[in-house]
Amino acid sequence: PDNRVYPLTGxxxxxxxxxxxxSQTTTSDARWIQINCPSDAPGVKRSDGSKCGTSTxxxxxxxxxxxxKNITPPPDGPRMVKSECFKRIYGAAVSCGDTCGKWMxxxxxxxxxxxxxxxxxxxxxxxxxxxxKISPFGGDAAHIDAVLIxxxxxxxxxxxECERVLRGIKNLGLQSSCAFKADALTYAGLESSTxxxxxxxxxxxxxxxxxxxVFPPKGDENPKKKGFDW
Length: 230
Prior knowledge:
The chain is α+β, with helices and mostly antiparallel strands. It has a six-stranded mixed sheet with strand order 1-2-4-5-3-6. The protein is built from eight helices and six strands; from the N terminus they run E-H-E-H-H-E-H-E-E-H-E-H-H-H. Helix 2 runs antiparallel to helix 3 (82-96). It is globular.
């Protein structure tokens, strides 16, 4: 089952966010709370849902090769550098049309309901990407540091679209930490817990140049590059 909650037919984003509050919804009620951009909203790029996950086999094969060459390498065998690994992964995704991705926002629990309302309304107005979702955390606020909100972009290789969506997020007055992840990694089961043993925990992030352009690092922040720029 999809196990997601969506707005009712004719329900506004504001009413939806008020009716289904992330802080009062548990993960047993829903895995995600989601809103989609209206189909007639101009200027919002759309992904081809039929191609989502089509690069999974290729991505897993690249990761398998990386593991064989770097984690359990043969004697004197060639290694694969991280940048090559992800260049091949994202290249495979583009070749399959599996290009959906998301800006991942990490929001403090006490601010999550308010931030989600602003995100949902902006998606409804066509000011962000094709959809957005938030992980409910009812009953867990005291045990978590951040709540995940995903704002989707149809094509991670379209730099202008990725920057447009991030600027839309900034225009809402949001200052939460964020990162960009391609869905091709998610469909292949590549999460932080599975990438860490491969020493790739910080290398999956896309569009660091865009992130630093829209949200310039402060003086006390480490500008060291850890991800991959398309």
